[in-house]
């Protein structure tokens, strides 16, 4: 789900800590404090440079990509900071809607991410299940992903905000994540949205 929102609505969107940690990939990725991650567009193409996804404020690395983890172009493996596989994202063969399948490290199917990004709409369809409580959630995006000015929602509630740096840094954008939200899940959503832009 998603839509375009005004600059005022984007600025007014407040990230409120979730009452119960949202843990889809793993509970260890649900930070006890708000976190801002540094991301890069087409992140998978930077694997040769060993680009790590880090905390903007502390420099602590959380995730990265390793080129040796890819079997072919449309298969991307998210690793934790120690190099352990976290999740694998793959675009199905002959996928006309550009949706992404997400698998566990043992290649067990996890969930799907279906983004649609154009100049006129920003849509994200994704249903996930909490790995601790079993509760289902519906994820969406609002705003302007092409300008990296968007809000990621869970059941309609903002859980992350995407923004560009005040000073221009090529291909870099920031992701503010609410307290208690699965950071790995948000990174995978950003990857899928970036891929949708690349393939549109």
From TrEMBL:
InterPro entries in the cross-refs: LOR, LOR_sf, Tubby-like_C
Gene3D superfamilies according to UniProt: LURP1-related
SUPFAM superfamilies xrefs: Tubby C-terminal domain-like (SSF54518)
Family assignment from sequence similarity: Belongs to the LOR family.
Name the record gives this protein: Aste57867_10806 protein
Species whose genome carries this gene: Aphanomyces stellatus
